[in-house]
């Protein structure tokens, strides 16, 4: 990331801070219920096929040339998509399941914006970047639970994290970037095979997903699912987290209707990813202050903190906060195991049997919980940062620029418009600086 984009980040972050208190009244969509395991038999099983043990096919070992050769190395290629995925997308669209709303655009890595007439917090668009919450998406954990997950791996910094987790017998969910799995197969194996952690999807190249066409969304998610499927003995992931938390009704519908995926966002954000940036938006001290506040605070809703296995510093911010999770009595659960659900669409976890024929398990019910609260609560606003994805470098780090934990549940249309205007001013200013 350039210094310029860092300036941009700081500028937009200040803008957001000034508009955050403007609460929106546009709460079209309600929050998530307490149950979010899959309870349907989804046709995704037709898209990722693997024969039974003894089917005579030799599956290439993780990290070998044969293992990676069939995957697009750097971009989410849409020209070599398996026809079955495209057919499934077309069928879902024909059945009216994929909302026909336009792609957003993101300029200089700023929050994506929609064409005039498309309100990001309307029920039609419901942009998670604008903090519109759609039923069925995950933002919170049950009371008393801290749902553990890490984004953007596998990466070299993952080693330190995996050692720590193993030595404390903790399991977490990894929202992996597909191209990073290709680059860091050893870390992938440590997460999945050694630590027996839970693997979920964070797209192939880490873009703002709402800026992508239906076919591009298909490719970003599909290639990542296929690589995870082919590297885990045939498991089909059940959860995905959109980069920057950027999703909307169209994108989540493709994830859900074609691939059976549940969308996961977060309710607290430390900006830990910026610690390794030229101009960090936070410090280790500030993160520990936030962690202290959250971990010693109310236990409802439970915590879904956005964290990254991106740099030694971001990993350390988790390690430093970990003792507080323990001492304050938080129930530490790998995010994909919330509500005691299965981790994959066709397998209970990383070691249990893969069910080849059926996705979802109708017999699987979460344990009864003492009335899980459905009280609407604040979720953390998050800002995307300047994107460096144009470089085409596969190991693109996460850039969710989050800085609000105000009581704002949704941005009002007015504050969004203001943000857009200010963003334009900022962009113009940067243009001047560049020139
Ligand atoms: C994934 O594995 C299947 C075998 O189960 C194989 O047919 C397919 O080609 C693999 N995908 C890629 C992209 O290599
Ligand atoms: C996977 O689930 C089985 C029960 O189906 C359990 O015995 C095992 O400990 C679980 N493994 C992990 C890594 O959670
Ligand atoms: Zn990310």
From TrEMBL:
Indicate, by first and last residue, each region the UniProt record lists as having compositional bias (Low complexity). 366-395
Its required cofactor(s), as named, are: Co(2+)
| Residue span, NodB homology domain | 144-333
Alphabetical UniProt keywords? Carbohydrate metabolism, Cell membrane, Cell wall biogenesis/degradation, Chitin degradation, Cobalt, Glycoprotein, GPI-anchor, Lipoprotein, Membrane, Polysaccharide degradation, Signal, Transmembrane, Transmembrane helix
GO MF terms listed in the record are: chitin deacetylase activity
Per the record, what are the reactions this protein catalyses? [(1->4)-N-acetyl-beta-D-glucosaminyl](n) + n H2O = chitosan + n acetate
Q: Which GO terms describe its cellular component?
A: plasma membrane; side of membrane
Q: What is its main location?
A: membrane
Could you tell me where this protein is found in the cell? Cell membrane
Positions of the region Disordered? 366-406
- Membrane-crossing ranges are 411-434
Gene Ontology terms: biological process? cell wall organization; chitin catabolic process; fungal-type cell wall biogenesis; polysaccharide catabolic process
The EC designation for this entry is: 3.5.1.41
How this chain sits in the membrane, per its record, is: Lipid-anchor; GPI-anchor
Leader sequence segment = 1-17
* PANTHER family tied to this protein: CHITIN DEACETYLASE 3 (PTHR10587:SF135), GLYCOSYL TRANSFERASE-RELATED (PTHR10587)
Protein name (database record): chitin deacetylase
């Amino acid at each position: 990331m350039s210094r310029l984009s860092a300036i941009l980040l700081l500028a937009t972050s200040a803008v957001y801070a000034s508009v955050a208190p403007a609460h929106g009244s546009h709460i079209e969509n309600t929050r998530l219920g307490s149950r979010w395991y899959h309870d349907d038999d989804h046709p995704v099983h037709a898209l990722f096929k693997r024969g039974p043990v003894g089917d005579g096919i030799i599956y290439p070992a993780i990290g070998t040339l044969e293992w990676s050769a069939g995957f697009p190395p750097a971009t989410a290629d849409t020209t070599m998509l398996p026809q079955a995925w495209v057919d499934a997308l077309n069928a879902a669209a024909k059945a009216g399941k994929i909302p026909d709303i336009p792609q957003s655009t993101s300029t200089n890595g700023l929050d994506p914006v929609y064409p005039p007439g498309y309100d990001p917090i309307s029920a039609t668009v419901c942009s998670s970047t604008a903090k519109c919450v759609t039923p069925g998406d995950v933002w919170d954990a049950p009371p008393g639970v801290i749902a553990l997950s890490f984004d953007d791996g596998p990466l070299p910094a993952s080693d330190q994290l995996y050692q720590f987790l193993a030595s404390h017998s903790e399991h977490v969910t990894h929202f992996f970037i597909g191209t990073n799995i290709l680059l860091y197969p050893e870390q992938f194996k440590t997460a999945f095979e050694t630590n027996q952690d839970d693997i979920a999807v964070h797209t192939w190249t880490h873009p703002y997903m709402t800026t992508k066409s239906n076919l591009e969304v298909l490719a970003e998610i599909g290639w990542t699912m296929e690589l995870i499927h082919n590297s885990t003995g045939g498991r089909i992931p059940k959860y995905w987290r959109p980069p920057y938390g950027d999703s909307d009704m169209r994108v989540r519908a493709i994830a859900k209707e074609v691939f059976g995926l549940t969308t996961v966002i977060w309710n607290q954000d430390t900006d830990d990813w910026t610690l390794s940036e030229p101009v960090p938006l936070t410090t280790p001290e500030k993160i520990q202050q936030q962690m202290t506040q959250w971990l010693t605070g109310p236990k409802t809703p439970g915590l879904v903190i956005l964290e990254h296995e991106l740099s030694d510093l971001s990993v350390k911010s988790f390690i430093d906060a970990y003792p507080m999770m323990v001492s304050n009595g938080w129930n530490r659960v790998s995010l994909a195991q919330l509500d005691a659900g299965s981790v994959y669409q066709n397998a209970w976890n990383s070691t249990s049997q893969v069910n080849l024929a059926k996705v979802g398990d109708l017999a699987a019910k979460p344990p009864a919980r003492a009335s899980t609260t459905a009280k609407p609560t604040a979720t953390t606003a998050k800002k995307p940062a300047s994107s460096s994805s144009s470089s085409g470098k596969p190991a693109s780090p996460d850039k969710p620029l989050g800085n609000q934990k105000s009581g704002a549940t949704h941005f009002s249309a007015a504050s969004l418009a203001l943000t857009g205007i200010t963003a334009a001013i900022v962009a113009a200013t940067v243009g001047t600086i560049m020139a």
